[in-house]
Structures are given as structure tokens and as C-alpha cells.
Write a structure and sequence with these properties.
The complex is a heterodimer of chains A (447) and B (1038). With 447 residues, chain A is mainly alpha-helical. Chain A has a domain of 312 residues: Serine Threonine Protein Phosphatase 5, Tetratricopeptide repeat (Alpha Horseshoe). Chain A contains 18 helices and 7 strands. The chains are: A mainly alpha (447), B mainly beta (1038).
Chain lengths: 447, 1038
């Protein structure tokens, strides 16, 4: 009988096994525990801003798509993706395009989760004001995300529910560009009343929504509304004004100056990659790209760049290589990402006014920018001259932000200025992997 | 109150018992039964049923000698049909008690086994054992046991570790290259101690592991790197913690019959390692092996000179349609837009950075072991020290190891024992592979040769995103220390004759301590005023295992065996990471002195519970049948699929035992084998792959943030591989020729795959069981004794194998970690997915690419599959020759049909697009220059597709090679000389490795890979080539 005791060890499995095999993760939490109360809603909101500022999105990749496409930046590194973009050989396999696409949709996922869960939370610590505010911020960021998608890729798939299982949000066809813009406007409109009318340069407030609406209406050629919303911020001089000189908004580790309407803040616990692409090796970057000769000449021209020449510098001889230094700080990776500055609202209003033949006030707005840059004031006297002057002003005002390419495409000037004959190339390709993964998604023509 | 206390205590006990306590119980119980319980210790002998009659037992004594009559210690003498036995002592003498009708079996490794009946011996025997070179590894280690080679049903190859110790590499798997049919080994880099590529019968998985399961003395050891501080390429190989000198034998279990007993982790084969043990009743033996030598890079890259570089760039300028007058390399005094010229091409200097970074590396190796045993206890103590300098500067590998194996027989029925490996691997690292920052080989290889090392002001010049090479050579400060303990403690109890119970506890503990400091001269540290990272990882695997083993012969011709076992395993991995910047000065290197610090910690855990069994039966050693089953339950899998079941069955027919072959002397062995079985794979995937998860660390403004990172899949389960194997063993002329052939077909389904999701969902992928992969192959191994004469012996070992891998089903293509390779249904692994360059137009010099979809445009849709990194055929040929005191071994291995993507050429042949940012190689000089030129290097220009399209087939090269892997020449000093100085044996030797390479590959060596990520293979990007080595050494035995 005794020898059968040795079989006892085999029996234990029947008892302790289930508990033993249920190992809970400690690094991450189960989805069901994600947003359950005031605190977890707030941290999920932080996660939303984190995605907005992630490397794939405003943390470097998305603005890079714009300025690398814009004709003023040369590729000086080793990677194939920026080489393709600057050489105008973008394929549907381009890694930068894919990574921006992915990051924008992740931002949308974070927003959708908040929009779905926060209204249903019953936590006395979560006040109605905060509840509204969180939803407003999520709506505004979702609007910005779709705005960036539509200006980059044209009409895209509108995903308005959080993905909780793999079958969610499948089979959605592409919307038209107009329908996508309509969703942007709806989200901005819905967000506005939910938000407080305060000034916060690192988070979305009602004022941020106004700024985004000014930009939205400019893209939609709704000049009067563009002017109205730009004016709301420009008139708020206590909060927003052009800082002087130009470099005052970024130099000497400045953050959250009056120049900024929305800038993503970075710190040691959340960094971005801008510096790495721009700075030369001696300053811990890899100088993957740099201002080209044309831009260097413009920025160094006292009549064009003025004090905006502070944006660039040169390496030690015998190299003497030019590099951009908008993103330069230590600890590395803590430079803010500039999403919208008051300077842009001046130029939006200037253009909107010129389009409405309000030439004098349009010129005044333009000259506000030129005055700050320390260049001679413009004397443009026709709407056409003004519009051209605004275009040129934007080129040297936002050379390292997400502006030049989208601006030229928006105004229909990309062919004339950049010499791109194939209109199909005014939008980026849908990443090839997405075409494979999603039967409902179609490629942009020409890719 | 009393009740309360009672409850409390009882609860505590329960907690202690579960889960680990539950696992502890079996051992306690096992030991209790075995009679170790103090209360029973004295009672046991009497309580045991004494099955054997004591009446006629008589003492037998005798002596065992070798063929020459020299005493042979350590010979195992057993009573046939029982497990009882003894071992001959130092003088060859033995003593055993046996029935008069008993038969004694004398066996000793390397000698023919002999049986002698006790009857008629008159209590005194002299036995002479003949040597048998071909039976050196007659006893083969298999899963949970050993097997006589003749009785093997499965496909198992056992390697005597002594035979492969010819190449001074850090780990034993690398030494297996070319030695075993069906095993593909690729070194990946020339840095000792770095990860290697090891596949048994092909790749079965995309996202789970393709590495075999490694079992060392019964311990399932971790072979996944704990390295967290990147060296930008391969990560460390955890198996380099094990000193190859401690290994006795390595068994490669290949087919399902052999592996299914390891169930859910066996789909990629199993490598069972047995370490050295002492021998009972032997004189204590002291062995010393010491060797020293050098390693160097046999070949480096051919880069152009400064003037040639300048010529190419000027040519691009002109070909782009820009005026010659404004070319970049024009006289320095000619200003264009205020920018001076770089000087004429012929004025350019040339700097040899590769010469600065490669060196002759010193190799040192010392192994000292003491082994022996008395009647009850045997021991092996080994100490080893290895130091290997890489040929690439600042990479060193050092390992100190201690090995202690002990076995003790408490009495005739009970044995306890322990196997222990304690080692410390100390690496000096550098950033070797991809990525410019700190990239020591990239800085040397990719910085244009004309660019100076210093700026005009005397400061270090830095080019193209790279560090200054001199700065890196003198300031790279990266270290890692791996402290490893692998141990096993077992108790064995012979319950009755033929029935054995074994319980064991095993531990694999690994502490991996890494540190890097980048000072203010380096790119990484300059802006942040010094940057330091410290990472400490701990990995603990514990295993408790019980087995019951039964073997019984009856009716003279029937042999029956059974195995029943269970095992419980837990793994915990933790990591603590700290980073500091802004140091007071470069003299301060520890993070305590940094003014800005960040830190984090992570923890992961998984558990596994298993039950397994095996039965085997043979009739007259003629017909064999075996079947096994293992059930595994893993914490990693979805709630709906916790348990997996893995059965196998095999049959064998030993035809030689049939009457019609008994009288055919030429045929000494003829066996047919067949097996089929199912094995699983769960290694390499995340511990929580089946859960829906939100992650932390998505911070904003230094406030914590969260974000959804993974969708749940409660149906997630094992990958399953079904494998069928058919084999044939032939032995001719007393096995002077032995041949083994195996044909197999593996089919893996329910792949654990990170299936891409539309990114619009916000998720990149989900773990799903999706996809199927097949591997079909043929293996041939031949061993021959060509000459066998007094004083002269010549043996040859040859193996060759082919494996055809194909992804049979995959819902979506998956890009490899380097997207030049793609996994897609209908194609093999590691297939290159590129734009195919058809030719260079002789008239225009432009590259012509295949318009794959014939739409008239060159788009992403025109990429196509061009070859794979997987070789069609691999193998090796080894010849050993001994003549009198001399021994010579020459080993050649080869690989045919694989491709390598030479990404260095992508950078070095960039047609001027990379101007002053990348070096140029000599092959670029073969560019098209004028109409009529026939070449595959297009016209140099920065415009158009010639050099702006990537990846292209232009850089895919044939990676076939034949390598003179090693030569060993030894001389054993005659005994008569040694006797005077009290040395038993002494041998001196020369050992050379990688002495010759035949390959069409343009880089230094085709056996390279940039990354440890298993989805990419055959991708050469700044990978240091395998070194050539020469060593002298001595083996001494006292």
C-alpha cells in the first residue's frame, strides 16, 4: 500500500493548479480597470496628450512630413524614409508616413475611450465641470487629429468609437474630404461649450478651440469665420501676443510664452525626438536633415529672415554645416512641440482679410509679424501681392513646424512653387500595410 | 480565541503550500518514502520487502583490463536484468555479490560491452574489454532517460562534447555548427558571447521562439537574453554563461517521438546537455587544459580613397545636370554662394579608420578539473576561466565558472545528487550594430575616408551623425556582468527491481548587471553632460519534477518500460533601470552623482504545470514501439485554452536481428524507424499576451498617463507542430561504416502571431492563432573508420541536410524587423522583398527595375520576392587522423543557397546621394560611365530611381560558403617520459579556426546578421566578421 503514496504528488495538480496558473500582470492593468473613476479618467487624459505629442505625431514625425515635403529642408542623414520624401519619391512603404498614420489613429483611440467612458462615470470626485472639460479636450484633440489626417491624406476612415475587440471599427469605408472636415467642425463645435474659457498653453481650453477653428475655416476658405476666430485670440492680448524678438518664444529654454496657443510640454518622463533629427553629432543629434541652401539664404537675409536667423547655426570648421536649432534643449528631448502660435493667427487673419479685400487691416496683420522679425514692413497693395507676401512670410516664420507643405497644397500653389506636376502627390499614400490589413481601405490615386 | 489562532495558522499553512509549497510536497513525500525521514531511518531496512533470496548469493571478485592488459578503472559491472551493480576501482579490481546463475555485464564507455556468467568463475574473474571507437556514445541521452543507440526509435544525435571543442567561441551551440545533420547554426557576429542563430529542422514560428528547448542536467534553462542596454545589434547569448568544458555530451532531439515528452516547448527540438560527473571507485584525476592564442579579422571592407570619393561626388554633381564649375570638390578658393570649395579630388587625404578599430585579440583559456569517487560517492569539480578579446575594439568576453557535480548512494536503493554551475560572464561592450550614435563599427566603416579626425581648432571632428572614432575607442564605457547559477538536486529511490522514483528541484537563476557611461566627449553624453544607464535584471526559473520509471523484461524476449511524471515550473523576470544625466564631471560615473535621474522597474511572471508519460515495448530487440503524452497548462494562455496535449508514437524494426540477416556479416546494423507526434511552442511570447491591457508610462507634464496597448484574446493557445519522421540506420563491417538517414515533415499550425490590425483601430496587432508553416527535410550522416591499424587510425564524419521552409498560410504579410524581409503566404522565411533591378541600361546607365504589376509605374506594388537568407543545404566534414602520438583533426563546414542582404553596400554605393555622409566602397567605381558600359552599378546621380529606391535586389548576394572551420594538431607525449615526472598523460596542441573561407560574398564574411530579432536573418549592416584564430595549448592529467 505504501508505495502508492508516491502517487500523491500527481494529485496536487487537481487542487492548486487553477490559482497557480492565474498570474496577474503587474506592469499593465486589465482593460476593465482602465477608466473607472476620477483619477483613472485624469490619467487616461494625460495618456491622450502623450499620444498627441508622441514621436510619430507632433513629437517629430508628423511635422517632419510637412517640412521635408516643403522644399526647404534637405536630407543629410542615412535613413531611407526622409530620403524618399525630400527626393519626392514617397512610396506607400514609407516608414514616416506609416508611423504618422499610426500615431494619429492611436490619439483618436485614446480620445474615443474617454468620450465613451467618462460620461458614465459615477465618482463624486469627478465634478460635472471636470467631466465636461475632459470630454471637451478629447473632442478637440480628436478634431485636430482628423484635421491632420484629412490635410495629409485626404478623406479617411472616421472611427468614432473605441476599439474594444478586434471586430470593432472594421469595414468602415473612407469618407470624403468634405465629410472628414465636417466631422472636424462637429467635434470642435461640440467641444467649445464643454471647455472653460481659460488660458492653458499645454492643454486644450475653449480658446484653443477658437484657434483651431480659425485654422479650420482658413483651410475651408471660410474667410469671415477664420477672421472672427483669429480675432478672438489676437484681441486677448493679456494672454497672447507676439513675443520679441522672434527667438524669445524658444531660446534660452523658454516655454509657454505668450506666443504659444498650444504647445506640447516635454520633460524627463516624456521626451520627443525633434532634437535628434536636427542637431549635429557634437550636440548629441544625428542631423538627419538640415535647412537647405535656399532656406539658409532666406533666413540670413536681413530683409527676409531678419532675427529669425536665430533658427539656424553652423558646425565648427572645416565642416561649417548648417543645422536647425529650434529644438536644442538639455536634457535632450525636452523641447516643446509647437502646435499653434499666435503668429499663425495673425497670418490667418491677414489672409482671411485679404481674401475679403480688407487690404489695410490685412497688411497690418502681416506687418505685425514682419515687425517682430525685424524686417522692413511690407507695402503690398493688392490682394494678390498680399497673399504672396503671406505665403513667403509663412515660409520663414514656420520653417521647422508643420506648415509649409500643407499651406502650399491648401492654396493650390504647390505646383507653381515646388514644381510638382502630379496632383496625386498632394496627399501622402495610405500606408501599404493598411491597404493589406483593411479591405475597406482604398489607396490614394497615384500610389 | 483558540479557534481563531487555529484558523490563522491553518490559513498560513495553506498559503505556504500553494503554489510553491504544493510543489515542495512531492519531494518531501518522496524522501519520506525513501527512508530519509528521521523517525523511519532505522526502520526502513527491515521494513523493506526482500524479494531476492539470500541463500545462494556469493561474493565474486575480479579485475578488468583493457585490450593491452592495463587495469581499467570505472568499468560498470551490473547483474543482468537488475539495476544492481558496482564499478571497478583504480586498479581495475571489483567485488560484487551475485547468485550462481547470474550474468555479469561489463560496460565502459569506448569499449565493447561484455557479458560473463558467474557460473564456473569460482569467484574470481579476469575480464579484458576490447576498445570500440564506434561505440563511444553507445548510450544516448534522451528525454527523461537514456537509451541504447541500437534501441533508439526517435531521431536523436548525440555529440561527445570533447569532439567539437576545436573553436574558441564563447558558447557550446556555436561549436555545434556543421556537426549535426538537421541543425543550422549561424554565428551572426564576430563578437564573442553575442547571440547566435540556432535552428533544428527549420523555423516554425514568426512571433514565438524558434530556438530549441535547452535542458542542462534536467534544468530547463533560459536562453533569452536579459540584456536591456542596447549594443545596437545582437544581444548577449545567455548560453555563453556555460563553460563548454563542463559538458560531457549534447543530445539533439529532433523528431516528435524524441521531443513530445517535452510537450509545449518542444516544437523547435530539444537540446539535452549532460555535464561531466566523476566515476565511482576511481583514483582521483586532476586535469588541466590551458591554451593561449590570438584572433584577428581575416578580411575587412574595401573602401575608396579620398580622391576617389571626391571624384564620385563631383561626377554625381555633373550627372545631376549642375554646372561643373560649382562642383563640391573644386579649388578651395572658389566661393559659390559664399561657400568655399572642398579642394580638388587629388588634394583629398585618406584616413584608414578600419585599421584603427580592428586589432589582434588575445585569447586565453584555462580549465582545471578534479574528479573521482569511492564506492558510495563520486564527484566532479571543475573550474574554468576564459578570456576572449574581440577583433573589434572594446569588445571583450571573460567567463569564470565553477562546476560541482556530486552523487552519493545512501544505500543500495537510494541515491541523492546534485549538479551545479556557477558562473560569471563579464563583457566589455560597444555599440556594434545599427545606429550612428556611439556606433563604433559604423563610425569606422561609414565615415567618408577623406574627412579628417580633427576640426581646424583641434577639437574632435564628428561627421554624418557619427561619433569621432578616436573618442569612441578611448571612451566607450559599457559593461555587463552575468551571474548565473544553474542547479539541480535530486533523490532517486529504487522501489522494487526495475521501478525507480525520482524527485528533483531545479533552479536557473541569472542576474544581469549592465552599466554604461557616455562622457561629454561622446555624442550621447555631450549635450546631457554625461549620460549613465544602469540596468539590473533578474531571471529565476524553478522547477520541481517527479518521475516514476519502470523497466521490466519477461519471457526472455519481451522488454517493457514506462515513465510517468509531473512537473511544476515558475519563472519570474524583473528589471530595475536607472538613468542619470548632468554629471559634475567625467570623473563621476555613477548615477548617484547625476543631477537629473530617472528610474523604472518591471516584473513579469509565468507558470507552467505538466503531466507526462511514456511507454515502450520491444520484442527480442527486434520490434520496438514507443508512445508518449504530455499535458501542459500555462498561465500565458487564454482562459479558454489553458491546457494543451502533446502525444507521439514511434516504431522501429531492427532488421539485423532477423534470422535472414544474422548470417550476413557485412551488415552489422540495419534499422528502420518511423514516428509521428505533436509538440507545442509557447516560448518567446509575452507573459500576458492573451489579455486586454492598458499600459502606464504615457505621461504628460510629469503626471502619470495610461493608454490601451493590447486587445484581449481569451482563445489564445499554443502553436502546434505535427511532425512525421522516417529513418534508416545502416552499419557495415562491424560498424566501420555507419549511416543514418532521416526524412521529416513538420507542419506547424495555430501560429502565435501578432496579426496586424488596421491602425485605424488604434492597435497595431493582436495575438492570435493564425498561420501555418511547413518544414520538410532530409538528413544524412555518415561516419567511417577508413584506416584502423596499430598506431594509425583515420576516421571521417560527414553530414549534410536540407530543409525546405514554407509559410503555408498567413492571413496578412508580416514585415520582418528590417522590412527588407517579409513573411508572406507561399514563401519561405527570411525572404527578401525588394524592387528587382533587372539590369543597367548600357545606353543611359540607368537602373531598370522590374515593373512587377505591369502598370507602367514603379510603386510599392512592384516589390517582389528575391531569394531567402535560408540556405538550401548545410553540412560539415570532419577528418581525424591519429598516428602514434600525433592527432590531427580537420573540420570543414559549408552552407549553400542562402542569400545575404549587404546593407553596407546600400550605404557605400549610394551614387552620390549620401555625399559627405557615408563612405564609398570600391564596387561603386564599377559604375556606368559611358554608353556601352556593361555593369550592374548604375550611373551616379542623386536624381531618379538609380539610388533613391530601396530596398533593391542589387544588394542581395549569394551567401554560400565553404569554411575551413578548424584544424587541430596534437602530440601526446609518451607515457615513459611522463612517468618520471608523475604525470599520467600530457598532450600539446595547435588549434586554428576559420582558417580559410570560400565565398562570393563581397563583404568580409557572409555569416552575419545585424540583429537578434528572429524575424530578420542574413542582413549585414556594420556587423563585425568572424575572427580567424590560432592557439597553442596543453592538456595535462595527473
Amino acid at each position: 500500500m505504501k508505495k502508492y503514496i508516491i502517487l500523491v504528488p500527481f494529485l496536487w495538480i487537481l487542487t492548486g493548479c487553477k490559482y497557480f496558473l492565474d498570474v496577474q500582470p503587474q506592469l499593465q492593468v486589465d482593460e476593465s480597470l482602465a477608466i473607472t473613476n476620477a483619477n483613472s479618467a485624469e490619467v487616461a487624459l494625460n495618456g491622450l496628450y502623450n499620444r498627441l505629442g508622441s514621436d510619430g505625431y507632433y513629437g517629430s514625425n508628423f511635422p517632419a512630413l510637412s517640412y521635408l515635403s516643403g522644399g526647404d529642408i534637405q536630407w543629410t542623414g542615412s535613413q531611407g524614409a526622409p530620403q524618399e520624401i525630400t527626393a519626392r519619391k514617397v512610396t506607400a512603404d514609407n516608414g514616416y508616413v506609416g508611423s504618422a498614420w499610426q500615431s494619429i489613429y492611436r490619439t483618436i483611440l485614446a480620445a474615443n475611450y474617454l468620450l465613451e467612458t467618462v460620461p458614465n462615470l459615477n465618482d463624486p470626485l469627478l465634478t460635472a465641470t471636470r467631466k465636461s472639460q475632459i470630454q471637451g479636450e478629447a473632442l478637440a484633440i480628436r478634431a485636430l487629429s482628423y484635421f491632420d489626417l484629412v490635410r495629409g491624406w485626404g478623406g479617411i476612415q472616421l472611427v468614432l468609437q473605441a476599439t474594444k475587440k478586434p471586430s470593432d471599427n472594421t469595414g468602415i469605408p473612407r469618407s470624403t474630404a468634405d465629410a472628414t472636415y465636417a466631422q472636424v467642425l462637429k467635434d470642435l463645435t461640440d467641444a467649445e461649450p464643454l471647455l472653460t474659457e481659460t488660458t492653458n498653453r499645454n492643454r486644450v481650453t475653449r480658446k484653443t478651440v477658437w484657434a483651431l477653428r480659425a485654422r479650420y475655416h482658413l483651410y475651408r476658405k471660410e474667410w469671415a469665420q477664420a477672421e472672427t476666430y483669429a480675432t478672438k485670440l489676437i484681441d486677448d492680448a493679456a494672454s497672447y501676443k507676439l513675443v520679441k524678438p522672434y527667438s524669445a518664444f524658444f531660446a534660452n529654454n523658454a516655454v509657454n510664452t505668450n506666443e504659444s496657443v498650444l504647445e506640447i510640454a516635454y520633460s524627463n518622463s516624456f521626451k520627443n525626438g525633434h532634437f535628434n533629427w536636427w542637431l549635429p553629432p557634437a550636440l548629441s543629434g544625428r542631423r538627419e536633415w538640415a535647412p537647405n541652401a535656399q532656406l539658409v539664404t532666406l533666413l540670413n537675409d536681413a530683409n527676409v529672415g531678419g532675427n529669425r536667423k536665430e533658427l539656424i547655426a553652423q558646425t565648427a570648421p572645416p565642416g561649417n554645416l548648417w543645422y536647425g536649432k529650434l529644438y536644442y534643449r538639455t536634457p535632450t528631448g525636452t523641447d516643446p512641440a509647437y502646435l499653434i502660435r499666435i503668429a499663425e493667427l495673425y497670418l490667418i487673419r491677414s489672409e482671411a482679410r485679404a481674401q475679403q479685400s480688407k487690404l489695410a487691416t490685412a497688411l497690418a496683420d502681416l506687418n505685425a509679424i514682419r515687425d517682430r522679425a525685424g524686417v522692413p514692413l511690407s507695402t503690398a497693395s493688392t490682394a494678390a501681392d498680399l497673399l504672396l507676401a503671406i505665403e513667403k512670410e509663412r515660409q520663414v516664420e514656420f520653417p521647422f513646424e508643420a506648415d509649409r507643405w500643407f499651406n502650399l497644397v491648401r492654396t493650390g500653389r504647390a505646383t507653381a512653387v515646388l514644381g510638382i506636376s502630379d496632383a496625386n502627390k498632394f496627399v501622402f499614400p495610405i500606408p501599404n500595410s493598411e491597404i493589406l490589413a483593411d479591405k475597406a481601405l482604398t489607396q490614394n490615386a497615384g500610389y | 480565541m483558540k479557534q481563531l489562532i487555529y484558523k490563522h495558522v491553518s490559513k498560513k499553512k495553506e498559503q505556504w503550500l500553494m503554489p510553491s509549497g504544493m510543489a515542495a510536497a512531492p519531494l518531501l513525500i518522496g524522501l519520506t518514502i525513501a527512508g530519509l525521514h528521521p523517525a523511519q531511518a532505522t526502520a526502513v531496512p527491515n521494513a523493506m520487502p526482500q524479494a531476492m533470496t539470500r541463500v545462494a548469493v556469493q561474493p565474486i571478485q575480479g579485475k578488468v583490463t583493457d585490450a593491452k592488459g592495463e587495469p581499467l578503472p570505472g568499468v560498470s559491472i551490473t547483474l543482468k536484468g537488475t539495476t544492481r551493480g558496482t564499478v571497478s576501482d583504480a586498479s581495475g579490481a571489483f567485488r560484487i555479490e551475485a547468485d550462481p546463475d547470474a550474468v555479469l555485464v561489463f560496460s565502459f564507455i569506448g569499449h565493447k560491452t561484455q557479458e560473463l556468467p558467474v557460473a564456473g568463475s569460482k569467484g574470481n574473474l579476469t575480464v579484458r574489454l576490447e576498445t570500440d571507437e564506434r561505440q563511444l556514445s553507445e548510450i544516448v541521452v534522451v528525454g527523461y532517460g537514456t537509451q541504447d543507440r541500437k534501441n533508439l526509435v526517435g531521431a536523436v544525435t548525440q555529440i561527445n562534447a570533447e569532439d567539437i571543442r576545436n573553436r574558441p567561441v564563447a558558447s557550446f551551440e556555436q561549436q555545434l555548427q556543421g556537426r549535426v545533420a538537421g541543425v543550422q547554426v549561424s554565428s551572426n557576429t564576430g563578437v564573442p558571447g553575442d547571440g547566435i542563430y540556432f535552428r533544428i529542422r527549420g523555423n516554425t514560428s514568426i512571433n514565438a521562439s524558434n530556438d530549441p528547448l535547452y535542458v542542462i542536467d534536467g534544468v530547463f534553462v533560459n536562453n533569452q537574453s536579459l540584456q536591456k542596454i542596447t549594443t545596437q545589434g545582437q544581444s548577449n547569448n545567455p548560453l555563453a554563461d556555460i563553460n563548454p568544458a563542463d559538458i560531457e555530451s549534447i543530445s539533439i532531439l529532433k523528431d516528435a517521438e524524441a521531443t513530445a515528452i517535452y510537450g509545449a516547448r518542444a516544437a523547435n527540438g530539444v537540446v539535452v546537455i549532460t555535464t561531466k560527473r566523476g566515476a565511482y571507485n576511481t583514483k582521483t584525476k586532476v586535469s588541466l587544459n590551458a591554451s593561449a592564442g590570438e584572433s584577428w579579422a581575416p578580411k575587412l571592407w574595401d573602401l575608396v580613397s579620398g580622391p576617389e570619393h571626391a571624384t564620385i561626388i563631383n561626377e554625381a554633381w555633373v550627372n545631376d545636370g549642375k554646372p561643373f564649375a560649382t562642383r563640391p570638390f573644386r579649388p578651395k578658393d572658389q566661393l559659390v554662394n559664399g561657400v568655399a570649395g572642398r579642394g580638388l579630388p587629388e588634394e583629398q587625404p585618406t584616413y584608414d579608420r578600419l585599421g584603427d578599430i580592428f586589432r589582434a585579440g588575445a585569447l586565453r583559456n584555462y580549465d582545471l578539473s578534479v574528479s573521482g569517487g569511492n564506492q558510495q560517492t563520486r564527484f566532479y569539480i571543475g573550474g574554468g576561466y576564459t578570456s576572449q578579446q574581440a577583433t573589434l575594439r572594446t569588445n571583450d568576453f571573460q567567463r569564470a565558472s565553477l562546476k560541482i557535480n556530486l552523487d552519493h548512494e545512501l544505500n543500495r536503493k537510494i541515491r541523492i545528487g546534485s549538479s551545479n554551475i556557477l558562473s560569471r560572464s563579464d563583457r566589455t561592450n560597444a555599440r556594434v550594430g545599427d545606429g550612428p550614435q556611439g556606433g563604433i563599427l559604423q563610425a569606422a566603416l561609414h565615415t567618408p575616408t577623406y574627412l579628417p579626425k580633427f576640426n581646424s581648432d583641434g577639437s574632435y571632428a564628428k561627421w554624418a551623425g557619427f561619433d569621432n572614432l578616436d573618442v569612441l575607442i578611448n571612451n566607450t564605457d559599457m559593461h555587463s556582468i552575468s551571474t548565473r547559477y544553474i542547479g539541480n538536486l535530486y533523490g532517486e529511490y529504487d522501489i522494487i527491481d526495475g521501478l525507480k522514483f525520482r524527485s528533483s528541484w531545479s533552479i536557473d537563476y541569472n542576474n544581469y548587471d549592465e552599466y554604461e557611461y557616455w562622457n561629454t566627449l561622446t555624442n550621447r553624453g555631450s549635450a546631457s553632460k554625461g549620460l549613465a544607464t544602469s540596468s539590473i535584471s533578474n531571471n529565476l526559473i524553478w522547477i520541481n519534477e517527479q518521475t516514476l520509471n519502470y523497466r521490466h523484461s519477461f519471457g526472455g524476449r519481451h522488454t517493457f518500460g514506462a515513465l510517468l511524471g509531473n512537473s511544476v515550473q515558475g519563472s519570474t523576470a524583473t528589471q530595475t533601470l536607472a538613468q542619470g544625466t548632468n554629471f559634475p564631471s567625467d570623473a563621476f560615473k555613477q548615477i548617484a552623482s547625476a543631477s537629473v535621474t530617472t528610474s523604472s522597474s518591471t516584473r513579469g511572471q509565468n507558470n507552467l504545470v505538466s503531466v507526462f508519460g511514456r511507454v515502450d515495448y520491444n520484442f527480442a530487440k527486434k520490434y520496438f514501439i514507443e508512445a508518449s503524452l504530455r499535458a501542459d497548462a500555462s498561465s500565458r494562455f487564454g482562459t479558454n485554452n489553458k491546457w494543451g496535449y502533446f502525444p507521439s508514437a514511434g516504431v522501429a524494426w531492427q532488421i539485423k536481428q532477423e534470422n535472414f540477416l544474422q548470417n550476413v556479416p557485412a551488415i552489422s546494423d540495419l534499422k528502420l524507424r518511423a514516428s509521428v507526434g505533436w509538440t507545442g511552442n509557447q516560448n518567446g511570447i509575452d507573459n500576458y499576451a492573451s489579455r486586454g491591457l492598458w499600459g502606464g508610462g504615457y505621461n504628460y507634464q510629469d503626471n502619470p498617463g495610461t493608454f490601451p496597448v493590447q486587445l484581449a484574446n481569451p482563445d489564445l493557445k499554443w502553436e502546434t507542430t505535427r511532425q512525421a519522421n522516417a529513418g534508416l540506420n545502416i552499419g557495415l563491417w562491424n560498424n566501420r561504416v555507419s549511416v543514418e538517414v532521416n526524412a521529416y515533415s513538420k507542419y506547424t499550425y495555430d501560429l502565435l502571431l501578432q496579426v496586424p490590425l488596421p491602425q485605424s483601430s488604434g492597435f497595431a496587432s493582436i495575438y492570435r492563432n493564425d498561420g501555418e508553416i511547413s518544414n520538410k527535410g532530409l538528413e544524412l550522416g555518415i561516419n567511417t573508420v577508413n584506416i584502423e591499424r596499430a598506431g594509425l587510425q583515420w576516421n571521417t564524419g560527414f553530414n549534410i541536410s536540407t530543409n525546405r521552409n514554407r509559410i503555408e498560410k498567413l492571413s496578412l504579410p508580416v514585415d520582418a524587423s528590417y522590412a527588407t524581409e517579409r513573411m508572406q503566404q507561399g514563401y519561405p522565411f527570411h525572404a527578401f522583398f525588394v524592387y528587382k533591378q533587372l539590369y543597367v541600361n548600357p545606353e543611359t546607365g540607368d537602373a531598370v527595375y522590374d515593373d512587377y504589376n505591369k502598370d507602367g509605374n514603379l510603386t510599392a506594388a512592384d516589390r517582389q520576392f528575391v531569394g531567402t537568407a535560408l540556405p538550401k543545404i548545410v553540412g560539415g566534414l570532419n577528418n581525424t587522423l591519429t598516428y602514434k602520438g600525433f592527432d590531427l583533426s580537420v573540420f570543414v563546414n559549408f552552407s549553400y543557397g542562402g542569400k545575404t542582404y549587404n546593407n553596407n553596400r546600400f550605404f557605400h554605393e549610394s551614387g552620390g546621394t549620401r555625399d559627405d555622409r557615408r563612405a564609398i566602397n570600391k564596387n561603386q567605381l564599377n559604375r556606368w560611365q559611358k554608353p556601352g558600359d556593361i555593369t550592374d552599378v548604375p550611373r551616379i546621380t542623386t536624381i531618379g530611381n538609380n539610388y533613391n529606391l530601396s530596398p533593391t535586389s542589387r544588394f542581395i548576394e549569394d551567401a554560400s560558403f565553404i569554411r575551413l572551420n578548424s584544424i587541430v594538431l596534437g602530440y601526446t607525449i609518451p607515457k615513459r617520459i611522463l612517468q618520471r615526472i608523475g604525470v599520467t598523460s600530457a598532450r600539446v596542441y595547435y588549434n586554428g579556426s576559420n582558417l580559410w573561407l570560400l565565398s562570393k560574398y563581397q563583404g568580409p564574411d557572409p555569416e552575419v546578421n545585424v540583429t537578434g530579432n528572429q524575424t530578420t536573418q542574413g542582413y549585414d549592416l556594420g556587423t563585425p566578421p568572424l575572427p580567424r584564430t590560432a592557439q597553442f595549448g596543453i592538456n595535462l592529467t595527473l
